[in-house]
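Homework help board

Subject: predicted structure for assignment chain

Our instructor gave us this sequence and asked us to write out the predicted structure in token form, then describe one feature. I got the tokens but I'm not sure how to describe them. Can anyone check?
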Amino acid sequence: MSAPAGLPQATQEPRVSAILTALGRAAFVWDIPSDAINWTEGAASIFKGIDPFLLATGARYGRLIEPSGSVRTNIFSAAPTTRRRFDEGVPYFIEYGVRASASAPMLWIEEAGCWFADADGKVVRVEGIVRLENERRARDEQLINLSRNDALTGELNRTYLTAALAEAIEEAARYRSPVAFMMVGIDHLARINNAFGFDVADEVISDVARRIRRRLRSGDTLGRFSGNRFGVILKNCGLDEVSIAAERLLAGIREEIVMTKSGPVSVTASIGAVLAPRYAQTADEAINRAQEILEVAKGRRCGSLAVWRPDTEREAQRRINIRVTDEIVTALNERRILTAFERVVDARTREAAFYECLVRMQQQNGQILLAPDVVPVAEKLGLIRLVDHRVLELVIAELAEAPHVQLSLNISPETTMDVDWWAAIEALMGAHPGVAERLIVEITETAAIQDIDDVQRFVTRLKNLGSRIAIDDFGAGYTSFRNLRKLGVDIVKIDGAFVQNLARSSDDRAFVQTLIDLARRLDIRTVAEWVQDEQSAAMLRDWGCDFIQGRLIGLASPSRPWSGPAAVPATN
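My token output:
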């Protein structure tokens, strides 16, 4: 390092050394023939804890470097293609770690400089500057860690867990060894959220992750898949080993109370497992099947294990679901969702009081599917709101064409909270004044007991439009008459399962008579469904039941019973 023109060497070098030290840097000259390295004073502050003797030669310094000391000699292989003179330096830049022993902390070094060769092209000298990069390296490692690991538990995140699973399955296929993938789901975490708050739930998740980690082998992989679910990859693990490992994990989770800042919390988990590549050829397939069988485990008993195996009935049902889904969507697009009308009559006079509109789906071959064939599948596959929306349009069209008719329609529990359905009914009623007062909306008792406050808001909002509310299939659930009074429903439809055997069952007679009597005391009208015979109809009338419907009165028909047998339903 030569001094600038006009400045003595003895004066310049101390200044340069002081400036470099102030900037956290140190300069060096490495004489290759002698292997000696001369450092400026700043080296002592950079290489803290390292004997200066170890820094004095290239060989000794190279032994401190990780992963390999050759990182400094490899720079000489770069050809000085741009040199105009033999003594012109070739720039380089390298990074490496340095430590005096395996137990010493790593010092991350950034080195930049030039190497010089003689007239024969032989490297004779290296001049450079080094600086400590521990803070930047720590930030980089933190960013890498955040990109790879879940922030709450520190385990792999979903992306890297999936990648690790894909690699494990590929390796298992190559070496013909089994690998198991477990989906571990914390049971009832939503209850902990509601009871104690999300911060306590986070404590539970972190604690469960630690418990799982402590019980895994060194080669196993753990990651957080979603909010309350962890993925575990077990290499060289067959069916017998899966059961043993699962029980070890489940016992470790359930046998100790989780101590949180809000107090002790008891936790269990369920596991769904799948063997790969035998039953899952890809990571996505393994994840889907593990999640699928986890739901089976939770449905069977919380805190249990279920292992995925081929199931011909399940696969057949899945193919049916796919086909029916396509049929429902096509029928909606092609306006093949229809309604049939079933009379509900006055129990005393047998005059029609209103008509229940039941959904029908016309298949492409002309055959008609009834509501029991359509509604359960539509609910299971998430299509029921579209079906309910279409039925609403058809019912409003019928009411608009027949000013003297009252109609009822059934909607699913999901639809009660559907903003699009509300927008549609408000728009349709606004376009057809007088229709709302002749519409009865039926919701099942199951929907009524799911969230009484939400259903009460639904009932209030609908009654403000002018419509009436009926509870369908009453008696099948657990809605109390106190809740009925709170909801303000207008009509209770007694579940037909208690009505169809009235003539033969004293228990059913006692139950139905009690329901009718209580409803009358609350000024709620009653409808008896599935009335099969005159004897039952007479008993219902004598007990004070307001309306009856069923086989005795006439089953649902696609024609408009209020306009004669030849009439055709309205279309929209």
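Reply (TA_rk): Your tokens look well-formed. For the description, you could write something like this. Residues 176 and 229 are 29 Å apart (CA to CA). That's the kind of observation they're looking for.
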